[in-house]
Amino acid sequence: MADNVHNVLIIGSGPAGLTAAIYAARANLNPVCVEGGGLGSKPGEGPGGQLMMTSDVENFPGFPEGIMGPDLIKRLRDQAERFGTKFVTGVVSEADLNASPKKITITDELRGESKVHETHAVILATGASARLLGLEKENQFMGRGVTTCATCDGAFYKDKAVVVVGGGDSAMEEATFLTRYCSKVTLVHRRGEFRSSKIMYDRAVANPKVEIKTNRTVVDMEPGKPFLSKIVLAGTNEDEGVEESLDAQGLFIAIGHTPNTKVFRDQLKVSANGYIEVEGAGSRTSIDGVFAAGDVHDNHYRQAITAAGSGCKAAIDAERWLEANELG
Ligand code: NAP
Question: What pTM was estimated for this model as a whole?
Answer without folding.
Answer: 0.81
